[in-house]
Write a structure and sequence with these properties.
The chain has a single domain, classed as 2-Layer Sandwich (Nucleotidyltransferase, domain 5). Helix content is about 20%, strand content about 30%. It is built from three helices and six strands; from the N terminus they run αββββαβαβ. A hairpin with a 4-residue loop joins strand 3 and strand 4.
Length: about 130
C-alpha cells in the first residue's frame, strides 16, 4: 500500500546518506593497484560508497586498500552532491571517518557527518534473555 500524502511531500532526492567502505581481496591480476589494509589484514582494493537510507547506491569511488576512509570524504561528497543536485545534508559514518579534516571537508560540500558507534556488546559471546 502506498501512502499518497507521504509520496507527495517527500522529495525524490535524499537528504541523508550513509558513507562506508569495503576492502576487496586482490588477485595476482590486480598488479600494483592493490594496497594493504592493516585494519582488515587484506591486500586489495577498497570500495568507498555512499548509499541513501533505503540502500540505493548514489556514489562510488575505488582506491587501493591502504587509503584511509577519512581521506576519501572529499571525492565522495563531491560525487554525491553532483548526483543528487546538492540535496544531501547529513551523512552517517563510522569511526573510520573521525577527525576534523573529514568533517571540514564534508562541510565544504554542505554535508554534516554524524558519527554512529557500534555497541560494545557486539564483541564476543552475548547471552540473550530467555523467551
Amino acid at each position: 500500500m502506498i501512502c499518497v500524502q507521504c509520496s507527495e511531500e517527500r522529495s525524490e532526492q535524499p537528504t541523508a546518506v550513509m558513507l562506508d567502505s569495503r576492502t576487496l581481496q586482490s588477485t595476482p591480476e590486480s598488479g600494483t593497484s592493490a594496497g594493504y589494509d592493516g585494519t582488515k589484514r587484506r591486500k586489495g582494493n577498497k570500495v568507498h560508497l555512499a548509499v541513501d537510507t533505503l540502500g540505493h547506491l548514489l556514489a562510488l569511488h575505488v582506491t587501493s586498500a591502504d587509503q584511509q576512509d577519512r581521506t576519501q570524504v572529499a571525492e565522495l561528497a563531491k560525487r554525491l552532491q553532483e548526483e543528487t543536485g546538492e540535496t544531501v545534508e547529513a551523512a552517517f559514518v563510522d569511526q573510520g571517518y573521525t577527525g576534523e579534516n573529514a568533517a571540514d571537508t564534508a562541510a565544504k560540500h554542505g554535508i554534516k557527518l554524524e558519527m554512529i558507534k557500534l555497541s560494545t556488546a557486539k564483541r564476543g559471546v552475548v547471552l540473550l534473555p530467555r523467551r
